[in-house]
Amino acid sequence: MGLRIKALREEKKLSQSALAELVGYKDKTAIAKVEAGKVDLPQSKISAFAKALNTSTSYLFADGSDENEPQTIAAHFDGDEYTEAELDEIRKFAEFVKSRRK
User: Fold this and answer.
1) How far is the C-alpha of 63 from the C-alpha of 28, rounded, in Å?
2) Could you state, in order of their start, the residue ranges of all structural domains in the chain?
């Protein structure tokens, strides 16, 4: 969760101090600890982070380990033009693109 918070904070060009103020912490030290995964957050703080970063709590909780969950690729490929390894790369790139959404 800390890495997702950090990525969103950086994407939104917020300093740790600015994010601390938005979520109700006194200073940036608390944000540094959260981003490093050194603290367990209560639900109220997770909600505050989601609101401040304009995202959902479920996005913050997602750990990317749902490898067996079915996925739909929004593209059409004629024939067998891609190998399974190439399709895996395409899926990874699609996840990267989605992770950068605001």
Assistant:
1) 24
2) 2-61
Cα–Cα nearest to 41, from 54, 31, 56, 52: 31
Distance in angstroms between the alpha carbons of the first and the last residue of the chain: 16
pLDDT at 66 over 60: no
Three-class DSSP category at 73? coil
- Select from 91, 92, 96, 19 the least CA-distant residue to 54: 19
Average pLDDT over the chain reads 83
- Stretch 54-71: mean pLDDT: 69
Q: Distance between CA atoms of 17 and 33, rounded to whole angstroms?
A: 13
Q: Which of 30-34, 48-52, 94-98 has the lowest average pLDDT?
A: 94-98
Assess contact for 2 and 34: CB atoms under 8 A: yes
- The CATH code belonging to domain 2-61 is 1.10.260.40
